[in-house]
């Protein structure tokens, strides 16, 4: 399977537009320096106002559950999850009201830990579908507080020595469904790097503006 990077996507878009006689100008967005606050996007403002109307709603939860089979180093996975949050500001962001407008507040460190639960005594491997449904029901009802956070939850349930269920739940204001695939891929890479004690093979994050 071929993996395409963001740069590959932009190059392809440029070629397609060039065939239509349209010139694509790409500008790299310069990261903020020394700032812990940032304006929100249009979509984030929309979700903030919906949250203000119904703060106890769980309608915008994005919950993903993964069935992990094989030997698992839980300590390394917890380290990988922490590194993931340090890499992505959105995963350690909360929101605040500034003169009636929502603003992002980026925290230096995330308060979220990968929570571990041992279900090996009262759950069995042959009940995995029931377990996943139970976790999904619980997480779908979780109420995120956009002001206090955290806006990501991660839990690891041990079913037996080589069977675990990983649950990752995020509020839509900090991620979308596509982000879940990125999160899972990067956790896997960070986990392998921690296990093998090798340098993390993830590139620096870049953001581009298409002008």
Which overall shape is indicated by the principal axes computed on the Cα atoms?
A: globular
Strand arrangement, largest sheet? 3-8-7-6
H-E order: HEEHEHEEEHEEHE
Global mean pLDDT = 85
User: N- to C-terminal separation?
Assistant: 32 Å
Radius of gyration: 20 Å
Unreliable residue stretches: 1-5
Largest sheet: 4 strands, mixed
Q: Which class best fits the helix and strand makeup?
A: alpha+beta
- Helicity level, as a percent range? 25-40%
Q: In total, how many beta strands? A: 9
Provide the β-strand percentage band: 15-25%
Figure out the total of helices.
5
Please summarize what this structure is:
The protein is of the alpha+beta class. It contains five helices and nine strands, in the order αββαβαβββαββαβ.
Structure report:
Mean pLDDT is 85; it is low at 1-5. Strand 4 and strand 5 (101-106) form a beta hairpin. This protein has 211 residues and is an alpha+beta fold. The protein is built from five helices and nine strands. The two termini are 32 Å apart. Strands 3-8-7-6 form a four-stranded mixed β-sheet, covered by helices on one side. Helix 3 (74-87) crosses helix 5 (177-196).
Keywords:
211 residues; alpha+beta; 4-stranded mixed β-sheet; 3-stranded antiparallel β-sheet; disordered N terminus
What's the topology here?
Layout (H helix, E strand, L loop, with lengths): L5 H14 L6 E3 L8 E3 L2 H12 L7 E9 L4 H14 L5 E6 L2 E6 L8 E4 L9 H13 L11 E9 L2 E9 L5 H20 L11 E3 L1
Parallel strand pairs: 6-7
Antiparallel strand pairs: 1-9, 2-5, 3-8, 4-5, 7-8
């Amino acid at each position: 399977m071929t993996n395409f990077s963001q740069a590959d996507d932009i190059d392809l878009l440029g070629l397609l537009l060039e065939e239509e006689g349209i010139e694509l100008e790409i500008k790299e967005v310069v990261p903020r320096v020394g700032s812990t606050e940032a304006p929100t996007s249009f979509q984030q403002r929309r979700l903030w106002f919906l949250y203000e109307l119904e703060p106890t709603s769980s309608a915008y939860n994005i919950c993903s559950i993964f069935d992990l089979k094989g030997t698992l180093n839980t300590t390394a996975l917890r380290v990988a999850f922490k590194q993931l949050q340090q890499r992505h500001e959105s995963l350690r962001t909360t929101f605040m009201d500034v003169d009636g407008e929502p603003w992002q507040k980026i925290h230096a460190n995330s308060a979220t830990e990968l929570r571990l639960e041992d279900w090996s005594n009262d759950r069995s491997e042959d009940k995995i579908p029931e377990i996943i449904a139970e976790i999904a029901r619980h997480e779908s009802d979780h109420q995120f507080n956009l002001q206090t956070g955290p806006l990501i939850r991660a839990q690891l349930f041990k079913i037996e020595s080589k069977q675990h269920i990983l649950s990752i739940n995020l509020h839509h204001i900090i991620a979308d469904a596509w982000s879940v695939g990125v999160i899972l891929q990067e956790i896997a890479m960070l986990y392998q790097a921690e296990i093998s004690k090798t340098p993390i093979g993830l590139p620096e994050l870049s953001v581009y503006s298409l002008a």
